[in-house]
Amino acid sequence: KFLNHYLEMFGPLINENGGFIDKFIGDAIMALFPGKNVSSADDSLHAAVAMGKELCSYNIQRVKSVKEAIAIGIGIHLGRLRLGTIGFKDRIETTVIGDTVNLASRVEGLTKQYGLTALFTSHVLEKLKKPELFHTREVDTVKVKGKDIPVTIHEAYNHDSVEMFDKKEKLSDRYGEALSMFKKREWKDALKLFSEFQKELPEDRVVQIYADRCLNLLENPPDDSWSHISTLTEK
Question: What is the rounded CA–CA span in Å between residue 62 and residue 85?
């Protein structure tokens, strides 16, 4: 009953924003956005934001009913894929396959690590026709398991609570500065900023991750081959 109610809430938001659902995988939804409304990039992000807002409203009601709030993870990537049928004569189904699909799945998995609702790749950001409608921030550059080419991931936070949204907007420029310092090996200065952010955003796991990384790099300086790219060993 809970799972069907959950899917009934989020499924229509995908349809309304130009997407179509390929399949349900347990409590997961695999959806494709062919660019029906604005573009594949814009439509998928609009859907993610809508789902994030719906989640916030739903959790408010759950807490009022003395139930535990739930979390979801949305991963978005843009690229070529193959859509068709797979199986054998007694059992076939429609599915999508390809590196684009695999990477989208990996990005979804990263939402747990960073404590975020919606993550998308730089490929999506570059193809947005109306980027001004989205409030985003860079999160990390990673090599996911099974892939050799690094990808930069970003967060869309339009759906955050008013308090969280305002804090992220207020710190946006300085967050960018701290991230730049981190990449340039200026870890002491970056740590100072990330530590300040922790006071304003104690629940922001991304800030905590970077503060910990800076501290670790200062205590254990790497050699000249160091890069800011994170290599992930788990899906």
Answer: 39
pLDDT score of 234 more than 70: no
- Written as six digits, the tokens of 190 are 């970056």
DSSP per-residue letters across 46-102: HHHHHHHHHHHHHHHHHHHTT-------EEE-----EEEEEEETTEEEEEEESHHHH
Residue with the two structure tokens 């070529």: 80
Angle between helices 162-183 and 205-219 (to 10 degrees): 20
What band does 103 get if pLDDT is binned at 50, 70 and 90? Answer: very high
Terminus-to-terminus CA distance in the chain, angstroms?
29
Query: Amino acid identity, residue 160?
Result: D
DSSP state of 160: S
Q: In the predicted model, what is the mean pLDDT of residues 139-148? A: 87
CA 120/CA 229 separation, integer angstroms: 17
The arithmetic mean of pLDDT across residues 150-175, rounded, is 95
| Residue 140, strand partner residues | 153
Q: Give the span between the Cα atoms of 221 and 187, in whole angstroms.
A: 10
Which residue, 147, 43, 39, 161, is CA-closest to 100? 147
**pLDDT of 8 strictly over 80:** yes
